[in-house]
Amino acid sequence: MDWMVTSAADRQDVRRRFPWVKSVLVGLDNYYSPPLQASRRLRFSRYALGIDYHILVREKLETALTQIRNIDPKVMGRVSVDTGPIMEKAYAEQSGLGWIGKNGVFIAANIGSYCFIGTILLSVELPVTSVAENRCGGCTECLERCPTGAIVAPGMIDARRCLSYLTVEKRGDFSENEMQKLSGWVYGCDVCQEVCPWNIKWQQRTSERRYIEKREAILDYIELGKMINMDKFETVFVNSAVERLKYERLKRNVKAALKNMPKL
Ligand code: B12
């Protein structure tokens, strides 16, 4: 993830790359789905149980941008979801829709943190919104329950230790220590969100069926354990965020997780 360093300056001020920007519109999309029945040994993050959010959030924001342009065709705009030089959580926090939690994830008021963030950069001045109150207070559930202690300080993540980084971004083999900490997770990790009292209070099943349309297929697939195969990988994960991981790395994750399953 060297790009985080190389693009750091651009990330701090989007006008470096897009000098015409006057406002950033933030869009949130709920992707929450209830946990699955306990019989499932291996865990898979909720954010990747359906069609890739890069596709769906962009689709919705492009529609919004078209509507903005119908109102004023002179408006310049650009949609960005995840991959642009934009600190999406920072803009979400500036938008007043919620706050960045101690788990380092943006918690939207009345929705929780199971929401994707997308932005529309605009060449028009929009009314400035005020930052919402940070409501984490004295709670430290996420810091205490993170399986690898990756939340090194409130809101500060040592990404190298985060199971999401290890299962999604890390290339090559896991160290013995990393394998022992997988706790059954084979793609992403939701622990710091599952233990969050605000999620327990606000989480609601997404109305966007496409975010969970692959749920059963994905879980049947990973439950094959060592028997997972390449052909089925392509069928199950087509158009999902997992495609980028490729079969070999998912197989690495499943084998490592099975070898170090937490004792029930
Ligand atoms: C790199 C990345 C990761 C890395 C590193 C995570 C991290 N915390 O840095 C890894 C692979 C570990 C990861 C994991 C996950 N990710 Co991720 N990730 C990103 C990505 C692409 C960039 C984040 C980044 O720049 N990090 C670098 C640090 C330094 O910046 P930061 O995280 O934004 O936080 C700093 C700034 O916000 C800054 N800040 C705050 N206010 C202000 C104001 C100003 C003016 C400035 C300059 C700075 C600033 O302070 C923060 C601390 O330094 C974003 C998409 C995006 N473009 O933002 C998605 C994103 C943050 N990820 C997302 C998700 C869903 C996850 C996971 C939950 C997935 C999963 N279940 O496995 C986990 C959660 C891990 C965690 N607890 O944070 C969502 C979060 C949605 C939400 N509700 O917040 C995003 C927004 C993608 C999206 N488009 O929806 N992710």
Determine the mean pLDDT.
Answer: 93
Helical content, roughly?
A: 25-40%
Structural class: alpha+beta
Q: What ions, cofactors and ligands are bound?
A: cobalamin
Low-confidence sequence ranges: none
- How many E-type strands? 9
Could you tell me the strand content as a percent range? 5-15%
Terminal CA distance reads: 34 Å
Describe the structure.
This protein is an alpha+beta fold and 264 residues long. It has two domains: 3-32 and 53-122, no CATH class; 141-259, no CATH class. Helix content is 34%, strand content 14%. It has helices spanning 3-6, 8-12, 53-71, 88-94, 141-145, 163-169, 176-180, 191-194, 197-202, 215-222, 230-237, 247-259, and strands spanning 23-30, 43-44, 77-80, 98-100, 106-108, 115-122, 151-153, 156-157, 185-187. The strands form four sheets. It has a three-stranded antiparallel β-sheet, sandwiched between helices. Strands 2-9 form a two-stranded parallel sheet. Strands 4-5 form a two-stranded antiparallel sheet. A hairpin with a 5-residue loop joins strand 4 (98-100) and strand 5 (106-108). The longest helix is centred in the N-terminal third of the chain and has 19 residues, at 53-71. It is globular, with a radius of gyration of 19 Å. The two termini are 34 Å apart. The model has no long low-confidence stretch (mean pLDDT 93). The structure holds cobalamin. The site of cobalamin (B12) has 34 residues, from helix 4, strand 6 and helix 6.
